Amino acid sequence: MVRCPECASPKMKYDARSSRYVCPRCGLALSRGELDRSWDEQRSAYRREDQEDARAQRRRDYLDWWLSSKEKEKPKRKR
Ligand SMILES: [Zn+2]
User: What's the pLDDT band for 75 if we cut at 50, 70, 90?
Assistant: First the structure.
C-alpha cells in the first residue's frame, strides 16, 4: 500500500490512466517519483527534528547534572 504524504491515508490508488497514485481522501495525485521524493523530504524533516530534540535533551541533561552537582557541594561546606 502507498501512503499519502499529505494526509497519511494508506489507501492511495494507482491510476493507470494518468500513471499516478491518487489519494481518495485529499485528492492528491503524484507520480511514483514525486511520491518517493515527498517521502524523502518528510524523512529528512523528521531527522532534523530528531537532532534538535537530541540537542535539547543533552542541554537538559547537562543542566540537571550542573544543578545536582551544585546541590551536592553545599552540604560538604556545612560543618
Ligand atoms: Zn491524501
Answer: low
Residue 5 located in a structural domain: no
Q: pLDDT tens, 12-55? A: 999 999 999 999 999 999 999 998 898 888 888 888 999 999 99
Q: Quote the ligand 1 centre to 43 CA distance (angstroms).
A: 17
Q: How many domains does the chain have?
A: 1
4 vs 25: CA distance, rounded Å: 9
Strands (E), the chain: 13-15, 20-22, 29-30
Domain that includes residue 48, residue range: 13-72
Ligand 1: centre distance to CA 67 (Å) = 48
Residue 1 domain-assigned (yes or no): no
